[in-house]
Amino acid sequence: KMDDADDDIPQLSSHTLAALQEFYLEQQQREGMKTSQGFNQYSIGSIEEDWQLSQFWYSDETASCLAKEAVAAAGKGGKIACVSAPSVYQKLKEQDGKDFSVCILEYDRRFSVYGEEFIFYDYNQPLNLPENLLPHSFDIVIADPPYLSEECLQKTAETIKYLTKGKILLCTGAIMEEQAAKHLGVKICKFIPKHSRNLANEFRCYVNYASGLD
C-alpha cells in the first residue's frame, strides 16, 4: 500500500527545515553578493573553510598582517610559498603585487582554481613536489601545518626546509613551541594570530629571522 511506504520516509522537523532554508538563503545571498561585486576569486571567503580537512581561516586582520610580513621579509621581487596557509595566500593575491610572486601548496584541490600557482600538497609525502619547484628557491615560506601533532610538524618542516632560502614563518599552536624550535629553529613572536572562528587551542606565530611580528 502506498500509505505504508510514505510512513518510512523520514520527516524533518519544522525547526530543522527552517534552519535548512535559512542556510540555503544565506548561501544564495552570498553567491548573489559575489556576482554583484564583480567577485574577486582571490578574496577571503571565496572558498569556504572545510573543517573536515582541518581548515580554519585566519581573521581578515591576521591574514593581512601575515601577508604584509611575508612581503616585507621576501623583499622586492621576492618569492613566497604558502604551505597549508590559504587565507594568507588569498590576502597576498588581493594585493595584486607586482613586486613579489607567490604559490600555494595545499591538499584541498578546490584551490586549483588559482592555476599554475597551485601545487597539490600532502604533508604525509613532504618531498613529493613538482620537479620545477627547485630547492631553496623561496625567500620566505609561511606554513600552517593542518594538525597539532609532532608528526605533522616534522613532515611539514621537511617541506619548509626544502623550499626556503632561509626565512620561515610558522603558525601553529602555542603547545608546539618546543617542537617548532627543535624541527625548524624558530622562536615565538609577540603577535597573536586570530581566526575567523574562535579555536579551542591558543595559536601563535614563530620565526627564525628579525620580523615585524614583535
Describe this structure in words.
- This protein is α/β, with parallel strands linked by helices and 214 residues long.
- 35% of the residues lie in helices and 18% in strands.
- It has 6 helices and 7 strands; from the N terminus they run αααβαβββαβαββ.
- The chain has helices at 2-7, 14-36, 60-74, 86-94, 150-163, 177-184, and strands at 78-83, 100-106, 118-120, 138-143, 164-173, 187-188, 203-207.
- The chain has a 7-stranded mixed beta sheet with strand order 3-2-1-4-5-7-6, with helices on both faces.
- Helix 3 packs across helix 4.
- The relative contact order is 0.13.
- InterPro entries: DNA_methylase_N6_adenine_CS (IPR002052), Efm5/EEF1AKMT1 (IPR019369), Mlase_EEF1AKMT1/ZCCHC4 (IPR041370), SAM-dependent_MTases_sf (IPR029063).
- This is EFMT1 methyltransferase.
- It holds the Pfam family N6-adenineMlase.
Task: Supply database-style keywords.
214 residues, seven-stranded mixed sheet, 6 helices, globular, cytoplasm, SAM-dependent_MTases_sf, transferase, protein-lysine N-methyltransferase activity, Efm5/EEF1AKMT1
